[in-house]
Amino acid sequence: MSQVPVAEPAKPFSPSGRMIVALMFLLGILATSFLYAYWTLHLMPFMPLQEAIVSEFPGSAPRVDGGQKKMHKDTPLVLRIAMKSEIDPLSEVPADIQEMEKIRTRIAALAESLKPLPGMELLELHVYRLVEEDRISKRSWRLAMQPGAVWAEIDERGRELTVQKNPPAAELPTPAPSTDRDSAAGDAAAGNSTAP
């Protein structure tokens, strides 16, 4: 009978310390390259607009981004701008409301003149103010980039807000005057009859 040679079990691969350090450096270089490419390809087209907003509104710390939703390719191209303001965007003071209108108008003019996103259809502006350390006051608007378009306020999900105002007092329905018979019938139905 012949004997079959038994192979010795293979030793598990154990990388040396030098190899681990070299792989860590390679991972760091790859991550840095990825971030640089992302910054250059995705965010650099918006840098001139961002710098123009900073020069126009110092301390605003704007973030400019744009594009189309990846999941919904048939959605419009949107340019989004988030910026800090010293004015409370939720303020109802007429001077503050007027200042917010000036900011929106100037941002739209800058976006129109610099055109960081060719073919953009919508401009979204998100203005916030730091109220306390952990609280902000924020308001958002959207503008269709068409002649004669007006700003519309939007919520966090990008849906337009509809404001329902109370009708003037002249349009409010007036209750019909009640008669003594009506009130007695109503009291009887409610069990509040005073009759013996």
Quick recap:
This protein is α+β, with helices and mostly antiparallel strands and 196 residues long. The protein contains four helices and five strands; from the N terminus they run ααββαβββα.
Strand and helix map with partners:
Blueprint: H1 17-43, H2 47-56, E1 63-67, E2 78-84, H3 94-114, E3 122-132, E4 135-144, E5 152-154, H4 180-189
Parallel strand pairs: 2-3
Antiparallel strand pairs: 1-2, 3-4, 4-5
What is the element string, with H for helices and E for strands? Answer: HHEEHEEEH
For this structure, what is the CATH class of the domain at 47-162?
Alpha Beta
Strand content: 15-25%
The whole-number mean of residue pLDDT values reads 82
N- to C-terminal separation? 123 Å
Major sheet description: 5 strands, mixed
Strand order, sheet with most strands? 1-2-3-4-5
Proper CATH architecture of the domain at 47-162: 2-Layer Sandwich
What general outline do the C-alpha atoms trace?
elongated
Low-confidence stretches: 164-175, 178-196
Oligomer: single chain
Number of helices: 4
Give the helix/strand class: alpha+beta
The rounded Rg comes to 33 Å
Describe the structure.
The structure is a single chain. The chain has 196 residues and is α+β, with helices and mostly antiparallel strands. The chain has a domain at 47-162: Alpha-Beta Plaits, CATH 3.30.70. Helices cover 35% and strands 18% of the residues. It is built from four helices and five strands. The protein has helices spanning 17-43, 47-56, 94-114, 180-189, and strands at 63-67, 78-84, 122-132, 135-144, 152-154. It has a five-stranded mixed beta sheet, with helices on one face. A hairpin with a 2-residue loop joins strand 3 and strand 4 (135-144). It starts with 16 loop residues before the first helix and ends in a 7-residue tail after the last helix. Mean pLDDT is 82; it is low at 164-175 and 178-196.
